[in-house]
Amino acid sequence: MISHRLSRCLFLICCMGLMLLACKQHETSGTGEKKPVSVGTPITPPSSTIATLTTPTLPVGPTLISYPLSENSPFITSSTLSAIPRRLWDQRSVSDGPRLLVVLPSEEVSYVGGNIRCAGSTTPGAQVTLNGTPAKMYPTGVFLGNIPWIPKPGLNPFVFKSTLNGKTTVSTINLREASTSSTLGLSGPSADGFRRLQPESDQELQVSDALKVRCETVPGGRVYFLLDKSPVVHEMAESKTRPGLYQGEYKILPTDRFQAASIQIRLESSPTKKIKPASTKLKATVSTLASLNTGHYIKVQENDTGLFSDTTADHRITSVQANTQLFSNGKIGKYYRVPLDKKNTAWVQEKQCNALPLAQHTVSTELVKMETSGDTKGRTKVSFKFQSLAQPKDAATPPPPLAYRVDTVDAGTSLTLTLWDTEASDSEITTNGPIRLVRCKKDSVLQLVRCEVFFAPGITMRGFAPSYSNGQLDLTIQTIVPHPEAPGTLRPLRIVLDPGHGGTDMGAVGAQGVCEADANLVVAYHLAEMLHEHGATVSLTRAGDNFVSLEDRIDMISKSDADLYLSIHCDSIGPFQDPLMAFGPRAYFYYAYSSALAQSLQTSLMGEMGIRGRAVYPGFHFFRPLRRCTLIPGALTEISFVSHPDDENRLIDPAFLDRVVLGLYKGIENYARR
Length: 674
Prior knowledge:
By secondary structure, the chain is mainly beta. The protein has 6 helices and 44 strands.
């Protein structure tokens, strides 16, 4: 049995950036057993009463909005909110035929050939066809389908027809094929009949590295590649899910001595018909490059440059700042390989770096001193002091900018600081505080200095923040998050809620026209109300349907001095994936010390929704800027998939929103009291 009370709240959304909707949740209370929601069970959409629109004055600049809002806030109180509005659906004009909203495909996106996912909604009871093929219909009027598509030059019309009671509404979406340049900047002749050739640039490989070859061409043929002048044929397999896409690979052997090998890709559609081969180059190195002492330096050009775990750039290990010099011992495609240590490797994009000859690199700074200090807020500062090697030791000129990276270990039991372009003698300091040991060692093989920070037994890091100025690097480490003062209250916790998207950025859009930005704001505002009622100090990065950039969100959260933050989103499956394959909540974290917060949120959300266990996901690399909010624990939660018809339908059910808000509240409370 679960009992809770949600007092009234105010909510405002803007329709297509022209006006703001104002809504207010009426006071509710009650007890009763909550029934688990099973995926696949349709929910009848409730009716909604929406207020008269008004345009309030919003805060200027990146400013956190404290809850409760002032009388001049962008909310009004003249309506009752019974559901999240289906914003795009509500814009459909009523005509003689049934309403028809096509969400996918979009004329704003260029597509490649294959199965194109279609989604939208119509008046319940109507039947929809996609280019003449009946679509899968849901009782709510949602329709889904896939249309096989072989692109033709120019516009390719997709015709949607909705029929009800003998009347038909037609909507035509004109698609364009994505760019199909055959060479993509590759060396060698044009490849008639081929497109999207990979590798797209020269390679620098070591022994055991895999040369991956990929192309798109005529489906159903035999495709293979030849390496340099060797007659050995390397077969390429055709994708089972994407006809015409072929892939193959070759691993570099110790006996290979390639310097500028060509890769010939050939297609045989029949024993008698051949297409002119495609060609690029492999710049493979000899086996001696397997030594970590061989290679060159690269200099990073941009701040927040990612180091990735592989060349797909799907998982970011960490970030480095501009002018960081990294040692590279290889290159695959558009990525330099960077050895982090003798066992681990990272990859950095070529376009974000400049290659430096080994002879041009000179060490410019020296680590000369380490010390620690603490404060009364559970924060400890480790200071590293440097001097310039290009100036006399007694010179007043500070050393040049420092290249460094901070990595957390395990779930916050220790921390590693990597220093490039720096000399140091092996040294260590010990203390009796939260930090037990700081130890620095020079790695002569990788030509860097690595400093490890170890915490005392029972101490876990909750966040960190590095800063460098005038030859001193201060590493501030948070080891304590305040616990609630008493049962039933969250005082004195300070919490920042970050409702994603807003304004011109609607986020993901469901088949019924529910916009992610609206759902994020409704949930954030209700959650802020509940947290405030239990004593927490709550702020929001936005409190209306206004656009807030990711950089501004970072700035607000970083300067908030909060104890934790939560970014609230809804998820959506990709345009070429099955919308029924993903549903329910997901929680993400980036740094290991935030995993406990993400897990607590996920466990509570699943319990309120009646969904079986699901793990949390490390590294919300797709939402990169929030990674820079390092000093406080933080998580990102996806409350539902708007691309799933049942998940979207739940978002327009106020009872479901109550459970979402309660689940998030319990997740924060359980984390704070652990």
